[in-house]
């Protein structure tokens, strides 16, 4: 315990304070000394220069130049050494005897130093003389390095008089020979021999020369073993792996792992060798060539692991340049602040410590330090290189801001302004901000110790996302590329709008006349806001669509590669089609919107409609976002016991059809669209018109702010206006009645209040979560300690309240530690994860439409929901809410979760309608109203049931225990019978049947099966208990007994074929069927370990065949003539037999008839997917929405070993939709990061994951990514579009495009024109037209009138594709009909 505490303080606390430097006892003296001197140099250089030189540009230049040269030198040498190790240019040691002699005389402290010797041309000649011959390895070992007692080198100690170079070659037998210097002998001359499998497929044999009685030892440090144990040995580093595996084996043997007999007898001798290996001994050294110039090089006595222990590696040149630039920037900004006098007295030393820690982190970052005190991403993804840049990047950001503020404070003309009645002295505000930034810079060591700062990339995502949301009306960011893309498109649109607005407001204009340029600005503002609100922040799908249009050949080649793998995912193409529909729709909608906006803003209609618009927005918002959602909740206002507005499926037990569209859903969609596209655009355009008129007269420089506010409010209204009406009402009431004098303009007031209300909403969610979580009656009172612990928690509650306000201001989780971004993960390789993947696809199809229909209640970006059913429990996180799109992530929980999860599931599913209690008594409750206790308890929950019957397409799972179905021998015999009949069916229906029958090699191999007296007598395979054709007196199976049972079935299947096949008793077909039946049963016996009579062995063997793993005996190798005999005959027969065996329990007599059995197999072959869950075809079938699937699953859990027959049926699943407080989720996830990553509490039964019904703590924590949680499946970020929802599409008619408009016009007017043209005009034309029509109708070759009648009889509600196809067909019919009518008219004339 004490050593662990010291290690934590050393590697955690101290390393965090210094930027990564600490004394590591596991490293040698050279590495620790280098690290110490590096840190001291980086600390003392700025401190001494600042104290010794005046604060001039010269001192700044000296310091920056010194740091830059220092980092360039270190990084260049480090990079060149790693390149040298990658090339592996080894110098044989015999040509460098003088260097070896000098290395042998070195002390232990300097063993790891770089020994360099400049070699002349003569040395080069010696090295060329000593190169390996053609039998040697082509590539010498890039890591074959030695150093005495180094932290990462491998010492190969040989006898002093051995000077021969290593002889690495391949003998005549193709075995790799290991030289004597790498062999290990034990006492008595026995050699420890190991065989390693090489990548090339050759065996490696250690050939020991027993005649030489020379004992050699190979030692390696602990860091070598840990670093090398996971690598794969190859021909270039084979010798090193031999020595490593020797040491690894000795280490494992000491820990109780069983060693080979020869090693067990010499444990004491090996221990003595390891103890003496650290002493100075004459050793053979291997050097690397570091080429400096052509013909000149330096011989380096070092190795890669020692170099990695000394300095971090930067992979490429760009990364090295970035490190040098960051080091220069830290030096420049830090020293320039010292020159400006921002730091005084002892704080100068503290600031120099901060500078040294930032620069040192660019050279060496301890992995333990980075994983414990920076970000949980290091735990998920190993050592993250971004950690090395985070501290320096934060330093540059803060120091850059301080420098800018210092430059601004030097100005004497800083203004004093009044905003909302508050006088702001800009100089005082800047000084206050500068002091705060200086204080944060002082606290860098403590800040990084407790992990308050996330990684720099996470910080940039957060910063850009918040700027885009609060200032430009953005939605969300899903990554760094997404954040940069979102802010870039917002700034592009803003720059375009600012130009129009500035041009329109240059000159004052009359109140009764709005300039055309300003109307154009308003139209462009609406158009750009609408378009940006309907686009996802992730440009991946859009880029894929552009790529498919600009480079179709490249896309086609990629699709061909996917088709070759036979696993093509339909989702990308579906997403691209949705984006294409949106873009085509925006082309039409934006054009219409621009024209309407330009026309309306050119008039003076907005000058007198402000009050009407405000009242309309408040009324529509109240009805749409408060009244209707409350009436649809499971417990409206948490008082009523059932929903007032019920869906059609509310009273159904198992709904079988899609959810019906209710009248109140149509009303909700209509009001929502009216609010989004009419009311709020009108309010904002009215405010723009009024504010533009006042700005044009006051000549204020508020054009940019006006443009920003207009774009932000319009985009927010288009995306999600759920809370806009509350913000609007509060803005009007506050600035019209409470603080009318403090008001600026309505547009600016509305803009500021939208930001304030966003923060207040977060604060309300945080306070609600805290109150629910710490309420005394919610605590599980386990001891008397709680009785007096609660009052003492008051100071902590006060601190928690302050923490709540601070985290609300910065939009961070409640936990102050490690509040970083949790990246999307992947599934847990659990077989049940495919169901959650299919659930994700179903949500992708319908989620956006269901949200717009109000089936999930009110929602906003960041909301969290739980979908709970009988066995599926999924956590859905809404990431981005756009105009007609929703980006979400689904996390699947365990089917049968832990005890804590089950308790929380029960809390979700149990009803409170039967609760009659009121305080301590049970007086009952009014009809349709909850009791007082039930209503009180519902208000103290961090979650709420919003929908009780939410239908979603999924798979219903039914499982049967295979052991029960095959317990009796007769049932196993029936399975074997179906197995053989299925093989016969697939054989006869194969297209290669005639080829197999006529194949001479197969015919020769099956000669023995043609003889009637041939008997198969394998007792481990054939048994009277399970084989229908077993002959007891002969103790085996014969051709006659086989025909007696299966000939009728063979002949029936053969007669069903179109081409006649000879199927009598002596036919080749019967011989092949008999041979395959023997092969199938022998494969089952082999897979069952020749113990088919045992139920467990039988199930194991059958499951092995079901997976497609066939072990073919020597007698049956004829089947390898064509592998389709196994893959398309025997393997499908195994799987089909399982389904037939399952059916016989419901219709035993029917399956005995050949006709019924044949029809059943034929139907199952096309309609049913039968394969193992690990087969890619299983996943493809599930994602392709196949109706029925069957599989056999081997389940091993908690000591149980069972085989389950799993049957999947596609149907509509019913879920409960539970909305969770999103701050509860963020707080619990951040708390888990703090506890596991920062505090290192790895207890699987820790209190923070125990069940808490009021907060669903266990379900929330288990849904987080590993290692914080244990979800079964975590989906990628998936976007759902409005256009894929059928019911919503039926309301608004689908995306508006030029094709849809043309189709609609053609179907409505062109048809009428063609029909009325026959009834108008002169009498002769009427007669001819009628005659022509009648002749066409009676002509059997004409299809005009028939097709026209069919077209008229089509239902009105068709999809867009059907309407387009029908329009095209009608166009062709009409054109053909017109030509024929004209010909007939000419003939009649």
TrEMBL record:
Membrane disposition: Multi-pass membrane protein
Cellular localisation: Membrane
Pfam families assigned: Pecanex_C
InterPro entries, per database record: Pecanex (IPR039797), Pecanex_C (IPR007735)
Transmembrane segments: 36-53, 59-77, 321-340, 346-365, 386-405, 417-433, 440-463, 483-504, 516-533, 582-599, 611-628, 713-735, 767-788, 800-822
Disordered: annotated segments: 136-172, 210-230, 252-278
Residue ranges with Polar residues bias: 142-153, 213-222
CC terms in the record's Gene Ontology section: membrane
Keywords: Membrane, Transmembrane, Transmembrane helix
Residues annotated as domain Pecanex C-terminal: 1062-1287
Keyword Protein biosynthesis: no
Similarity field: Belongs to the pecanex family.
PANTHER family, A to Z: PECANEX, PECANEX-LIKE PROTEIN 2
Protein name: Pecanex-like protein
Organism: Oncorhynchus mykiss
């Amino acid at each position: 315990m004490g050593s662990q505490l010291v290690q934590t303080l050393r590697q955690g606390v101290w390393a965090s304070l210094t930027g990564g430097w600490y004394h590591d006892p596991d490293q040698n003296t050279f590495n620790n000394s280098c690290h110490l001197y590096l840190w001291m140099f980086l600390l003392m250089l700025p401190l001494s220069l600042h104290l010794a030189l005046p604060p001039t540009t010269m001192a700044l230049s000296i310091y920056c130049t010194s740091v830059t040269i220092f980092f360039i030198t270190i990084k260049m040498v480090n990079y060149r050494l790693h390149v040298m190790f990658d090339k592996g240019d080894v110098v044989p040691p015999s040509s460098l005897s003088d260097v070896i002699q000098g290395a042998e005389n070195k002390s232990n402290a300097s063993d790891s130093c770089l020994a360099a010797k400049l070699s002349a041309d003569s040395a080069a000649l010696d090295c060329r003389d000593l190169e390996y011959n053609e039998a040697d390895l082509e590539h010498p070992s890039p890591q074959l390095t030695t150093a005495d007692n180094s932290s990462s080198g491998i010492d190969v100690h040989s006898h002093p008089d051995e000077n021969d170079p290593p002889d690495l070659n391949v003998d005549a037998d193709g075995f790799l020979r290991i030289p004597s210097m790498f062999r290990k002998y034990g006492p008595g001359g026995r050699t420890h021999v190991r065989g390693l499998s090489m990548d090339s497929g050759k065996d490696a044999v250690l050939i020991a020369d027993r005649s030489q009685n020379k004992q050699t030892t190979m030692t390696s440090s602990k860091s070598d073993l840990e670093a090398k144990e996971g690598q794969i040995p190859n021909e270039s580093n084979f010798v090193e792996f031999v020595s490593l595996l020797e040491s690894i084996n000795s280490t494992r043997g000491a820990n109780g792992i069983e060693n080979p007999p020869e090693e067990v007898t010499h444990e004491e001798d090996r221990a003595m060798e390891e103890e003496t290996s650290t002493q100075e001994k004459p050793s053979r050294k291997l050097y690397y060539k570091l080429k400096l110039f052509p013909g000149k090089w330096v011989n380096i006595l070092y190795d890669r692991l020692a170099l990695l222990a000394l300095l971090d590696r930067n992979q490429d040149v760009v990364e090295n340049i970035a490190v040098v630039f960051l080091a220069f920037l830290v030096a420049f900004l830090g020293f320039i602040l010292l020159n400006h006098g921002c730091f005084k007295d002892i704080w100068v030393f503290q600031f120099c410590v901060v500078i040294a820690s930032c620069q040192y982190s660019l050279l060496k970052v301890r992995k333990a330090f980075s994983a414990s005190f920076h970000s949980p991403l290091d735990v998920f993804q190993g050592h993250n290189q971004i950690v090395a840049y985070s501290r320096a990047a934060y330093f540059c950001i803060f120091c850059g801001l301080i420098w800018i503020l210092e430059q601004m404070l030097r100005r004497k003309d800083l203004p004093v302004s009044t905003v909302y009645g508050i006088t702001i002295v800009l100089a005082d505000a800047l000084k206050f901000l500068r002091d705060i930034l200086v204080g944060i810079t002082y606290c860098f060591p403590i800040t990084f110790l407790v992990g308050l700062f996330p990684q720099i990339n996470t910080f940039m995502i957060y910063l850009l996302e918040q700027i885009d949301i609060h200032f430009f009306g953005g939605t969300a960011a899903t990554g760094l590329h997404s954040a940069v893309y979102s802010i870039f498109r917002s700034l592009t649109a803003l720059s375009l709008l600012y130009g129009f607005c500035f041009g329109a407001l240059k000159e004052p204009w009359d109140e009764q006349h709005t300039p055309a340029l300003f109307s154009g600005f308003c139209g462009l503002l609406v158009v750009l806001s609408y378009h940006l609100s309907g686009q996802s922040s992730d440009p991946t799908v859009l880029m894929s669509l552009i790529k498919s249009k600009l480079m179709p050949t490249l896309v086609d080649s990629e699709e061909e590669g996917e088709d070759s793998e036979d696993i093509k995912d339909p989702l990308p193409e579906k997403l691209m089609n949705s984006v294409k529909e949106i873009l085509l729709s925006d082309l039409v909608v934006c054009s219409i919107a621009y024209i309407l906006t330009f026309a309306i803003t050119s008039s003076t209609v907005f000058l007198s409609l402000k009050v009407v618009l405000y009242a309309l927005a408040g009324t529509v918002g109240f009805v749409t976002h408060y009244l209707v959602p409350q009436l649809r909740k499971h417990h409206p206002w948490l008082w009523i016991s059932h929903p007032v507005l019920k869906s059609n499926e509310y009273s159904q037990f198992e709904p079988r059809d899609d959810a019906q569209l209710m009248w109140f859903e149509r009303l909700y969609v209509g009001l929502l669209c009216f609010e989004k596209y009419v009311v709020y655009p009108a309010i904002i355009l009215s405010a723009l018109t009024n504010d533009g008129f006042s700005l044009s007269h006051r000549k204020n420089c508020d054009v940019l702010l006006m443009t920003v506010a207009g774009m932000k409010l319009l985009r927010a209204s288009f995306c999600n206006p759920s809370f806009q009406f509350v913000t609007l009402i509060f803005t009007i009431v506050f600035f019209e009645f409470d603080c009318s004098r403090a008001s600026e303009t309505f547009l600016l007031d509305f803009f500021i209040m939208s930001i304030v209300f966003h923060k207040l909403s977060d604060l309300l969610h945080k306070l609600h979560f805290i109150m629910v979580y710490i309420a005394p009656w919610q605590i599980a009172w386990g001891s008397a300690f709680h009785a007096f612990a609660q009052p003492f928690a008051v100071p902590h509650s006060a601190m928690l309240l302050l923490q709540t306000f601070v985290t609300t201001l910065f939009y961070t989780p409640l936990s102050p530690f490690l509040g970083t971004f949790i990246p999307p993960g992947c599934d847990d390789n659990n077989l049940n994860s495919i169901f959650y993947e299919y659930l994700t696809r179903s949500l992708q199809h319908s989620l956006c439409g269901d949200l717009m229909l109000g089936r999930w209640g009110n929602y906003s970006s960041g909301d969290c929901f739980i979908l709970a059913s009988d066995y599926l429990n999924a956590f859905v996180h809404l990431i981005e809410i756009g105009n007609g799109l929703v980006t979400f992530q689904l996390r699947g929980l365990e089917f049968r979760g832990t005890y804590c999860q089950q308790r929380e599931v029960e809390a979700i599913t149990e009803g409170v309608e039967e609760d009659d209690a009121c305080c301590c008594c049970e007086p009952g409750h009014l009809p349709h109203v909850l009791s007082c206790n039930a209503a009180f308890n519902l208000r103290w929950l961090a979650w709420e049931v919003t929908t009780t019957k939410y239908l979603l397409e999924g798979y219903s799972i039914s499982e049967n225990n295979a052991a029960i179905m095959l317990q009796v021998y007769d049932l196993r015999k029936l399975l074997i019978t179906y197995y053989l009949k299925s093989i016969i069916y697939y054989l006869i229906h194969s297209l290669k049947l005639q080829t197999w029958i006529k194949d001479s090699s197969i015919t020769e191999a099956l000669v023995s099966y043609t003889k009637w007296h041939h008997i198969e007598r394998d007792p481990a395979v054939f048994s009277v208990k399970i084989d229908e054709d077993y002959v007891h007196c002969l103790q085996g199976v014969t051709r006659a007994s086989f025909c007696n049972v299966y000939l009728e079935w063979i002949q029936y299947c053969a007669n069903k074929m179109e081409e006649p096949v000879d199927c009598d008793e002596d036919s080749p077909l019967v011989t092949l069927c008999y041979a395959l039946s023997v092969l199938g049963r022998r494969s089952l016996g082999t897979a069952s370990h020749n113990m088919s009579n045992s139920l467990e062995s039988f199930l194991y063997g059958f499951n092995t065949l079901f997976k497609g793993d066939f072990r073919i005996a020597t007698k049956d190798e004829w089947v390898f003539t064509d592998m389709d005999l196994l893959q398309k005959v025997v393997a499908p027969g195994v799987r089909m037999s399982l389904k037939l065996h399952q059916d016989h329990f419901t219709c035993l007599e029917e399956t005995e008839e050949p006709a019924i059995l044949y029809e059943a197999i034929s139907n199952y072959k096309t309609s049913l997917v039968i394969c193992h869950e690990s087969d890619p075809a299983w996943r493809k079938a599930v994602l392709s929405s196949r109706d029925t699937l069957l599989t056999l699953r081997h389940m091993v859990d908690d000591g149980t070993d069972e085989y389950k027959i799993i049957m999947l049926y596609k149907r509509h699943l019913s879920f409960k939709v539970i909305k969770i407080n999103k701050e509860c989720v963020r707080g619990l996830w951040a708390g888990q990061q703090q506890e596991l990553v920062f505090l290192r509490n790895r207890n699987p039964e820790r209190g923070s994951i125990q069940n808490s019904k009021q907060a669903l703590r266990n379900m929330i924590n288990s849904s987080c990514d590993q290692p914080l949680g244990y979800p079964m499946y975590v989906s990628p970020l998936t976007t759902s579009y409005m256009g894929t929802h059928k019911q919503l599409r039926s309301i608004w008619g689908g995306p508006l495009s030029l094709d849809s408009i043309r189709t609609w016009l053609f179907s409505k007017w062109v048809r009428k024109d063609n029909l009325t043209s026959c009834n108008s005009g002169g009498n002769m034309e009427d007669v001819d037209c009628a005659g022509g029509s009648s002749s066409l109708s009676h002509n059997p070759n004409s299809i005009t009138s028939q097709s026209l009648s069919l077209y008229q009889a089509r239902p009105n509600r068709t999809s867009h594709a059907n309407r387009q196809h029908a329009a095209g067909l009608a166009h062709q019919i009409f054109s053909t009909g017109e030509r024929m009518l004209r010909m007939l008219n000419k003939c009649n004339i």
